[in-house]
Model the fold of this input.
Amino acid sequence: MGTNTRNPTVTFYGNFGSSYSQRFARNHLQRIIQEFVKPGKLNLEFRHLSENPDSPSSGYLWSNVADERYMAEVVQTTWHYEPENFWSFFQYMMENPPSGGSFTNSDARAALEAAGVRNYVRIPNEANRGWFTHHVEHTTETAKIDDIPSIPRLVIRGEHLSGNDGDVLDWLESHVSSWNEPIHMGSSADGSSSGSDDSGPQLSRSEWTIMDGTRYETPVYEIDSGEPGPTGFVVGGQHGIEPAGWEAAHNLRDMTPKSGKLVVIPEADRTAIRANTYSGDGGNLNRQWPSGSRPSSPLARAIWNEIEAQDPDVILDLHSSQGIYGGSPSGVGQAIFPTPNARSGANEVIDELNERHVRPAGYSGDHLFSRGNDQTGANPLLSHKIGGDTDALGFLFETTRSGVPLETRIDWTTVASVKMLRRGGLVLE
Done:
């Protein structure tokens, strides 16, 4: 609420199930909006804290950890799809909090519909798929960094205070008054413009094609936050029978980097995708990347030129396999193959993916993800060329087509991609 990047931002940590958060929302929050946000003096950010920062596997308020986390997923999904109606949903939930320590898909649907959210059916279903789990986890991590002792809690410029503290308005006024930039009026709480000039960073989305005019032509997407930061590069669709990779890559290009930029080539070999074959007209694209020399086909060279031009900090190559790495049937699925400098990041992603997504979906044993061998440049794969010829963190991601429906494979690949990009410093929203 409030969008001017030149103004200070106060972060409100709360939880719809917290009576103290509800009290803050009824009282001090309304005055903060009227006296600071609407006049364009302050931006307001809400973080729904659903996990114990010191023990993320535990709920913040409820013993029903899954439902409490799901409520936070609904919060993030609503913000993604309908930011213009988010604060109506927020107000409704604070006035009509969940009871009994549970929050289900039908509860979410009823609340969203009552709050006037158009996508009241889609949002609960999307929240179940966990695409915005990284935001829930990020809130837990920032709460630990900010050393949040309780909720509701307001944080501004590294300092925090209870939202129900009697001095909270004076405390905010002192921070606004001491802000060392000229204060410009931002957007009002109802979304209308309430001020003038905003020359802060501007998000941009660009698209161009490589191999233009040939049967291999394929789009490249760049999402630039306008803020300095890391660059992530994602390649999907090297093989035409692996739709989870390119569908996940398309999902990523609909997201927004918090800083830095994301570059995506979702459909690397469109000839293979159109034919629904493993290899395209130019052969197996993922055998055309010798380390230490030029890629061996025009398409591979065109993709590599894009990678070199962007000089990314983290690069993903998204695939699927008929089999399972170290399991049955034999293959390379359910594994992340990192460059040597990305081993620890791969381990972290694997642990999070198994704990938060694979096991909750009912999979175990061979279907749990593991770490594959290092990608060093020893073989002519894209991931090996990344490991041999660049300093970027590199991840080859493989899910399995054995016993896992496409929708689940896409979800796992999307979530894992967001987590892998974060290991390179790129946070997607």
